[in-house]
Amino acid sequence: MSEKNVIETDVLCIGAGVASLSTALVLLRRLKAKGAEKLPRVIILEKGRNIGSHILSGAVIDPSGFEGVLTPEEIEKIPIPTKVKKESFQMLTEHSSMPIPWMPRMMHTEGFPVGSLTKFVIYLANLCEQEGAEIYTGFAATELIEDENGRIIGARTGPKGLNKNREKKSNYLESETILAKTVVLGEGPAGVLTKRVLAQKNMFGMRRQSFAVGIKEVIEVAPHPDRVGEIMHTFGYPSDMHTYGGGFVYQVAPNQVMVGFVYGLDYTSATANPHKLFRKYKAHPVVEEYIKGGKAVAYGAKMIPEGGFYAVPEVYNDGLLIVGDGAGLVDSLRIKGVHIAMMSGRVAGETLAECWLKEDFSKNELKHYEERLKNTSGWQQIKRVRNVRASFSKGIMAGVMSAGFAWSTYGAFPFWQVPIKRDHEGMKTLLESSTDDWDIPISPLSMDRLTDVFLSGTKHEEDQPCHIHIIDSNRCIQECLPKYGAPCLLFCPARVYALENDNHIHVDFSNCLHCKTCQIKDPLQNIEWTLPQGGDGPRYTRM
User: Fold this and answer.
1) Which band of pLDDT confidence, cut at 50, 70 and 90, is reported for residue 46?
2) Whole-angstrom Cα distance, residue 126 to residue 453?
3) Does 491 lie in the same domain as 354?
4) Which pLDDT tens digit goes with each residue over 323-348?
5) Which of residues 359, 384, 409 is at a domain's end?
6) Alpha-carbon gap, residue 88 to 94, rounded angstroms
7) What is the DSSP string of 474-516?
8) CATH number at residue 525
9) Rounded distance, CA 476 to CA 503, Å?
């Protein structure tokens, strides 16, 4: 590679999410506070077109993550003015609901900020740039670089301007090689580079990660100023009694409601369709009360790592730190990870600051990141509920009992590791699955997937190599179709997959929301999700 395509930096953060941005912010501020004579060069690469383009969450943010990252003045200026003022927990049946009169204290969120995580990430990015970090959007890091000893020394971005046959177009841009003393992986859940390095270096936790798919809309409604700050969390319908699922409704402004549905990807029915379950959820009387007469203006979907404590991998290696959702740092009972992502970024920044002052970025120094992480309150939360998610795979009642034991015994019981199958395992055959077509009528608040994809702003340059690969198309025809009925047609929340007349699966990657549900849930593990050219994908602005 020519010399002009090699960039040298000190710290390279891949992904401009909460965890990476917190890392950069704390690193630079800590060194300034210590009077460092020279500051490191910090580069943050974001594959989205803009900061926040690929960020999606509920989001009710636990403010405990702000400590040590933001000043009191900065916390006051966070662009999420709405705070939770009233909350309820409901167990839904098909036609009614039952309020849960008492919930553990750790489940309550009164006073927490509730609103757009996209806006919060943009705010953090601006603070990072003020401190001297360099942020480059529209660049997808597609490969980690190692030296002859296996130490990670940087990353390479993917080229831009290739056509579908991988030939150079007139706007072709070569890859860039970025060399760094340490790479911070903050790709989010099921990141391409994170997945690859965990496998290559055998860094997996005690079990593999479990995921849920989260689907969300922002809905504009008639003004209800009296409801601002009201939130509702639900479980039960439309999930079955053996699948971990639930939903939320957040009134974040007088005329704006966020509605979401989360469905565990260890579900077993080959006919399950998470998007249609989301539509059923919105049609439930309790939910409909908040959104009737409204209009959806934004849509998105993402993966949520729910495996918890036992699924957290090794979070450091030689030349590498893994932060946030990429490390599975999510409280799987509360389904909250923003605050823990910030905590992981804080301790990663503190560790790198010490490395810089000592001029030592060895693995022996980077290990202090893990030590600091295990002393955070977020880590203790993950540890306390370490068996809750796995217990829900045994049924709703087993999960509820496990949650109660976890709360009352501070995680001491059950004291063993409750087993759980991988998400792609255990799917029933088409004959064994429900014959319910999961359908409800299309309405202004119950759009089909293609309409919702339009609301996500998703755009891909169509004349480029397809980033979703069916590894062996013959297996789709000979194994998957007769046994499972091609569940990829149903589990994708963006309608990327379609069945052609000759029974081949057509992949329309231009619809892709980058949630990676397909790669996780495919029962044959016959789908490989890679990165499209930088800048492509969702363009979230208010999620």
Assistant:
1) very high
2) 29
3) no
4) 999 999 999 889 999 999 999 999 99
5) 384
6) 18
7) HHIIIIIHHHH--THHHH-TT--EEE-TTSPEEE-GGG--S--
8) 3.30.70.20
9) 8
In a 10 Å sphere around its CB, with 0-12 CB exposed, 13-18 middle and 19+ buried, how is residue 538 labelled? buried
**By the 8 A CB rule, do 125 and 15 touch?**
no
Residue 466, both tokens: 């397809």
pLDDT digit string (tens) for 254-273?
Answer: 999 999 999 999 999 999 99
The domain tally of the chain equals: 2
Mean pLDDT, residues 216-227: 97
Same domain, 367 and 454: no
Section 245-261 average pLDDT: 97
Contact 115, 231 (CB under 8 A): no
CA neighbor of 258 nearest in space, from 118, 396, 131, 154: 118
Alpha carbons 176 and 78: distance in angstroms, whole number: 34
Give residue 506's identity as a one-letter amino acid code.
Answer: H
Q: Strands 182-185 and 211-220: what pairing?
A: unpaired
Domain hosting residue 517, numbered range: 449-529
Instruction: Judge whether 506 lies within some domain.
Output: yes
Are 183 and 48 contained in the same domain? Answer: yes
In the chain, the percentage of residues whose pLDDT exceeds 90 is: 85
Same domain, 345 and 474: no
Tell me 286's DSSP state: H
> Which pair of structure tokens corresponds to residue 180?
């760094």
pLDDT, one tens digit per residue, over 433-464 is: 977 665 676 677 888 999 999 999 999 999 99
Residues 61 and 150 in one domain: yes
pLDDT digits (tens, 9 = 90+) for 101-143: 877 788 899 999 999 999 999 999 999 999 999 999 999 999 9
Q: Indicate whether 379 belongs to any domain.
A: yes
Is residue 277 included in any domain, yes or no? Answer: no
Q: pLDDT at position 394, please?
A: 83
- How high is the pLDDT of residue 1? 36
Domain stops at, among 362, 384, 406: 384
Domain for residue 197, yes or no? Answer: yes
pLDDT more than 70, % of the chain: 98
Helix (H), strand (E) counts: the chain: 16, 23
Q: Note the pTM of the prediction, 2 decimals.
A: 0.95
Q: d(Cα 293, Cα 304) in Å, to the nearest integer?
A: 30
Q: Which two tokens stand for residue 278?
A: 């989301």
Burial class (CB in 10 A: 0-12, 13-18, 19+), 400: middle
What pLDDT band is residue 477 in, cutting at 50, 70 and 90?
Answer: very high
In 9-151, the DSSP E strands lie at: 11-14, 42-46, 86-92, 97-99, 134-137, 141-146
CA distance 179 to 183: 9
Pairing state between β 505-507 and 497-499: antiparallel
Please check whether residues 380 and 453 belong to one and the same domain: no
| Beta strand spans in 334-449 (E) | none
For residue 79 the two structure tokens come to 């662009």
Would the CA dihedral through 177, 182, 186, 191 be positive or negative?
positive
